[in-house]
Design a protein that fits this description.
Helix content: over 70%
Number of helices: 11
Distance between the termini: 22 Å
Number of strands: 0
Order of helices and strands: HHHHHHHHHHH
Oligomer: single chain
Number of domains: 1
Radius of gyration: 19 Å
Length: 222
């Protein structure tokens, strides 16, 4: 997972220290949307998607191949977004709204700790496409694929998927309500995730049709 996170944080620091905004995607609606303190929780919950994906990956050769291909796809999607972060950098200039909101509605200790963690570790750059949206969408789709295929008869499968997609929906709202992103970042993140998932489903179908053993031999993975 280091190979997925490193490009983001490297480009984020390059943009913060050496680059300037080339095109500002901010619109009036971005500042009209309210701050909602507690939504920092589903925002940070993105980082649970990665271990959950690893935990739910099937423990057979096909599952391991799908997981490996999924990680490669996530890396490719990340690098695609990094191109925009570096070639068309945009500073996310919304955090002043948090200070104004907190004068009357201060965060509780947990919310404050999570906001502090994000603000210390993540410079307000790397605006669009939102990697929070790209990664959460792709991982949620992959998790759903495995649960529906391999655990559909399990009693907890449906409640788990409902919880997963409720979290995803809250995460989509949270990038706006925590003033971490613009609306444009959300939309472009969804578009990128859709395109990469379409490509990944073709790979999954190929694994299913050709067989993981033959595919591994064909590409010399074994």
């Amino acid at each position: 997972m280091f190979s997925i996170g490193a490009p983001y944080f490297i480009s984020n620091n390059i943009a913060a220290h050496y680059l300037e905004t080339v095109w500002d995607p901010e619109i009036a609606l971005d500042r009209s949307l309210p701050v909602i303190n507690w939504l920092i929780i589903p925002y940070v919950a993105l980082y649970l998607f990665y271990p959950v994906t690893l935990a739910l990956a099937p423990r057979d050769d096909r599952g391991r191949m799908e997981l490996a291909l999924g990680v490669q796809g996530l890396f490719m999607a990340t690098m695609f977004c990094v191109l925009f972060f570096l070639l068309l950098p945009a500073e996310i200039d919304l955090r002043d709204q948090l200070d104004t909101h907190w004068e009357a509605n201060p965060p509780n200790w947990l919310e404050e700790a999570l906001f502090t963690f994000i603000h210390v570790s993540d410079n307000p750059w790397n605006a669009w496409p939102s990697l929070h949206i790209v990664h959460s969408t792709l991982l949620a789709r992959l998790i759903t694929h495995w649960v529906q295929r391999d655990h559909h008869e399990t009693r907890l499968a449906k409640p788990f998927l409902v919880l997963l997609w409720v979290e995803w929906a809250l995460l989509c709202v949270s990038i706006l309500a925590t003033k971490q992103h613009y609306l444009f970042d959300l939309v472009t993140g969804l578009v990128v995730a859709f395109v990469f998932w379409r490509m990944f489903t073709k790979v999954i179908d190929m694994v299913e049709e050709v067989g993981h053993d033959k595919l591994a031999s064909q590409y010399r993975w074994n």
